[in-house]
Design goal:
By secondary structure, the protein is an alpha/beta fold. It contains eleven helices and twelve strands. It comes from Mycolicibacterium chubuense (strain NBB4).
Length: about 325
């Protein structure tokens, strides 16, 4: 069941998409708009992960190249190379109509968006996906989710770490089996929308890439809160759902499903909370607070099963007092 909320966060791994653009950038520093991109690689992939086209270039950043010991690029090597403005058209053709994918996508996307703003170019990027978060959802049992760790896990050879082209090719090779595993385990892909970017005073602001919890907690639900969940009855759109720390799924994936189903995500446990998702009986935190307030607990597996048959809720508009329309008062 789809939510009528403004943003649509995430999608089932078996749902069709329009393809991927795997991107990696090496930079002269860490602050977009001040530090610059010194090399860039982008690979256009089909929805099932097969490479269709590619783009790679060193860039003359016009500033000191920064950590040469990391990316291996010196000022002499970059002098006379194309600028971002020179390659923007080629990059746009790889990105167009696809979801931008990167390992820690907030970093790469912010640098691309800042560079595009500086040359008055527009990135044709509507959605992004972070493979760090995707890897976190797959329960791989790895020590960490660094690119080199994932590469070793999937048997992908990494020749030159922190080389934009090599890192992009490694990520593209990893993405294909990752997508297969996500489909097999019925995971949701962390595909998130992006919106207009502005860079006042040389600083990047990209609210659309804030942590999902911060955005979801402020996203108004179009349905009235029907009250507490009752065991044995279905979930109802508008129910306010909190997540305890003690769950076996990532909070991001659960929040995506909450919003998609027309439920409301809340970070607080109070008298208005309909249920708390919690896999254990804790002695602290949100699960404990729920017990104190009599708020029902549901395990993550039970909650996910409940999401398959959510009952339609009452629209907020149904609570508008039409007799006082001239006064423009809305009763909730």
């Amino acid at each position: 069941m789809s939510s009528t909320a403004g943003h649509r966060w995430g999608r089932p791994a078996d749902a069709p998409g329009s393809g991927w653009a795997v991107v990696d950038v090496e930079t002269s520093g860490f602050r977009p708009g001040q530090a610059r991109i010194v090399s860039i690689a982008a690979l256009a992939l089909s929805d099932d992960g097969n490479v269709e086209k590619s783009f790679y270039s060193l860039l003359d950043p016009g500033v000191d190249p920064g950590p040469t010991h990391v990316h291996g690029l010196t000022a002499e090597m970059l002098a006379g190379q194309p600028t971002f403005a020179d390659v923007a058209g080629d990059l746009v053709e790889v990105l167009r109509g696809r979801t931008l994918v990167a390992h820690n996508v907030g970093f790469d996307y912010s640098f691309l968006a800042a560079e595009a703003e500086m040359v008055s170019a527009e990135l044709p990027v509507e959605t992004v996906m972070c493979t760090v978060e995707l890897g976190r959802r797959l329960d791989l049992g790895l020590e960490n989710l660094k690119l080199e760790t994932l590469a070793a896990h999937w048997g992908v050879t990494q020749m030159r770490p922190h080389d934009a082209l090599d890192d992009a090719m490694v990520l593209a090779q990893i993405l294909k089996p990752v997508l297969v595993r996500a489909r097999e385990h019925r995971k949701w892909l962390p595909v998130h929308p992006v919106s207009r970017r502005t860079w006042p005073n040389g600083r990047v602001t990209h609210d659309e890439l804030r942590p999902l919890k911060a955005v979801a907690a402020r996203t108004p639900c179009p349905y009235a809160n029907p009250g507490r969940f009752v065991a044995g009855r279905p979930l109802v759109q508008g129910m306010r759902v909190a997540l305890a720390a003690e769950v076996g799924h990532t909070h991001e994936e659960l929040i995506e499903r909450i919003l998609h189903a027309g439920l409301a995500y809340t970070e607080a446990v109070d008298a208005h909370t309909s249920l708390v998702v919690c896999d254990d009986v804790p002695d602290q935190g949100k699960g404990y607070q729920a017990g104190e307030l009599g708020v029902p607990l549901l395990s993550a597996p039970e909650f996910l099963r409940g999401l398959e048959s959510v009952v339609g809720g009452a629209d907020i508009e149904e609570f508008t007092d039409t007799s006082a329309a001239d006064d423009q008062f809305t009763l909730f």
